[in-house]
Every structure is written in structure tokens, then in C-alpha cells.
Amino acid sequence: GQQLNQSPQSMFIQEGEDVSMNCTSSSIFNTWLWYKQDPGEGPVLLIALYKAGELTSNGRLTAQFGITRKDSFLNISASIPSDVGIYFCAGQLPQGGSEKLVFGKGMKLTVNP
Amino acid sequence: DVKVTQSSRYLVKRTGEKVFLECVQDMDHENMFWYRQDPGLGLRLIYFSYDVKMKEKGDIPEGYSVSREKKERFSLILESASTNQTSMYLCASSFWVGELFFGEGSRLTVL
Lengths: 113, 111
Hints:
The complex is a heterodimer.
Chain A: E1 5-7, E2 10-14, E3 19-24, E4 31-37, E5 44-49, E6 55-58, E7 61-65, E8 71-76, E9 85-92, E10 101-103, E11 107-112
Parallel strand pairs in A: 2-11
Antiparallel strand pairs in A: 1-3, 3-8, 4-5, 4-9, 6-7, 7-8, 9-10, 9-11
Chain B: E1 4-6, E2 10-13, E3 19-21, E4 23-25, E5 31-38, E6 42-49, E7 56-57, E8 65-70, E9 73-78, E10 87-94, E11 101-102, E12 106-110
């Protein structure tokens, strides 16, 4: 099946540092989504990207849809303790609807105050 | 505020029991989904539905069934729970392609 390679798998940072993570694939995607999941909770949508090359910000978060449509990155600037959680990327394949979402395995972020 | 509500946050069941996981969304979304989430395996699609009375198998439907009698409600059924179905179950809905809205999750333990 389709796979998304999400890296890094985990990060330990100090409060105030910036964080970068990315997802890559050999497949082309029409949409890229970034989610955050707090411990014991469901994922929450952070940013949605719909066009190749698109760069979108949401507060301290910035995400880009790669120009090749095979990758995306998410940056978090000036991290704070509540940024702790697992961050997932998801890409939607060209054929089909939301059932064609492919998820990365997630990146676990730890922020030391 | 969009809302997907799962009826039980934590359940403990015995092997062989029938288990119902309920999910309700208040966004008038056509599409609803059930995933399971396991460490190291990520999110895997069990079943989905694009309309009332309609259901489609996802990637791992074995051992599960679903019911969608009303647009806002999508139920996941484990006819005879087994220990390998111990997992976090996530319901989601979407209005159109892409943006899934997830519930809080139901953590099921089968003893």
C-alpha cells in the first residue's frame, strides 16, 4: 500500500526552540493535512494544504505543500510546553475521497520548560 | 464548534463479548469513518460510509461491522471481541474530501 515517511520520529527540545518535521512519499498527493494528537485524545486538524507550492501559516505553525506534490513540511516556531504531543501528516491520493487519506506514523514532540 | 462525539472513552470487555462503539457528529457531514490506532502501526481504516445505509470496507474490516441508520450516527460493532482488538478506536467525519474531524477516541481493552 501507499506509505508516508514521516521524520523525525521524535524530538526533545527546549522551550523557545523551533521545530521542523516533514513527510515524504513516492506517491503524488492532492491534499496534505497536518494533525496534532494530545495524549489520550483524538487528532486535531492544524493545517490543510491544497495546492503544490502552497505555504500556509496558523499562528506559530507554518506548513508547505511540496512543489513535486510528494512531500510536505511543518514548522513550529518558539515552542511552548503545550506543543507537546504527536504530530501526524496525512496525504490524500488523487483518486477517491477521504478514504484515500494516507497517514504518517507520527512525530512525538517533547518540550522541556 | 465542530463536534464528533464518541460514546465511551474507556471500555473493558471480555473475549467473546459483543461491543458497540457509538459515534455522533453535529456538522451534517456526509462522510464518516472508523479507524484504529496502534503503536508503531499508525492509523488504519476499518470502515467508512458516504451516506445513510451505505458502508464500505477499509483496509482492516475483518472482525468488525458498522451501522449507519442516521446521517449523524455511525456505529462500530465487534461481534465477538478478541484480545487483538485491544486498541484506540477513532471515529471521524468529513464534509468533503480531505479534512477529517476526529472524535476523542475510545480506548478498548479486551481481556
